[in-house]
Amino acid sequence: MNVAADTKERILTTARELFHGRSYADVGIKEICTLANVQKGSFYHFFPSKRDLAMAVIDYMADDWAHGFVAEAFDGALPPLERLDYMVDAVYYWQKAAKDLEGRMPGCLFGNLALEISTRDEVIRARINAVFTKASARFHEALDQAVERGDMAPLDSQATATAMLAYLEGVILLAKTRNDPEVVRQLGPAIKSIRIELKPPN
Fold first, then answer.
1. Which pLDDT value is given to residue 3?
2. Which end of the chain is less crowded, N or C, counting CB atoms within 10 A of the terminal residue's CB?
3. Cα-Cα-Cα-Cα dihedral sign, residues 63, 79, 137, 194
4. Where is pLDDT greater, at 5 or 167?
5. Does the pLDDT at position 76 exceed 70?
6. Among the CATH numbers 3.30.450.20, 3.40.50.970, 3.10.560.10, 1.10.357.10, which is that of 68-193?
7. What are φ and ψ of residue 153, in 5° steps?
8. Residue 66 pLDDT class (50, 70, 90 cuts)
9. CB-based contacts of 194: which residues, under 8 Å, 6+ apart?
10. pLDDT tens-place string over residues 93-130
11. Can you tell me the distance from the alpha carbon of 81 to that of 171, in angstroms, rounded to the nearest whole number?
12. Domain ranges of the chain
């Protein structure tokens, strides 16, 4: 990795940890530069504004998320409904590891940012929404395959996928509020009971 790439990586990694562990508003550029050991000039070379940094962090985390435990959970080699169980387990162990290490649950970075910024920054809101839309598509695909295999009766798979993602984000938020990852383990499996029926044709 060359010097420029290493500098950018340090800024992104530092900002990701601070935004996730605390909040977007609570973290300043000066602190990010200090902890990343970079000069402000270097920061602004890569990121013209804090918003640009936030957008880059969202993309950085989304890519890591998509190619990490989400990819593992929604592996096409797994039976469709088992993917939902795997996803819940992955979320649980991710949050539990953070709690064991830091003493508190960080929750979901995207959910945290959505709650904090969505009503104040339309650009960031749209970027987070795109991340959630891609995540919902994973549930959608699994549900369609489960119906095709005869593992479940036909349903409105797109609406159900969106509802499942909303439920999981809500469970993570509740677990964060209680600072207890066991909430994810207790409530998460109920995700498979969510079902939105197809509307009858007019």
1. 66
2. C
3. negative
4. 167
5. yes
6. 1.10.357.10
7. -70, 155
8. confident
9. 160, 163, 164, 167
10. 999 999 999 999 999 999 999 999 989 999 999 999 99
11. 19
12. 3-49, 68-193
Helices 122-149 and 80-102 pack at an angle, to 10 degrees, of 140
At 199, give phi and psi (nearest 5°).
-75, 135
pTM exceeds 0.70: yes
Distance of CA 103 to the CA centre of its chain: 20
Residue 87 contacts residue 70 (beta carbons within 8 Å): yes
Q: Which two tokens stand for residue 35?
A: 């902890």
pLDDT at residue 201 in the model: 73
Owner of token pair 């797109």 = 158
Residues 124 and 54 sit within 8 Å (Cβ to Cβ): yes
Q: Which two tokens stand for residue 175?
A: 């677990």
Round to the nearest angstrom and report the end-to-end CA distance of the chain. Answer: 59
> What's domain 3-49's architecture?
Orthogonal Bundle (1.10)
pLDDT at 40 over 80: yes
Amino acid at 120: R
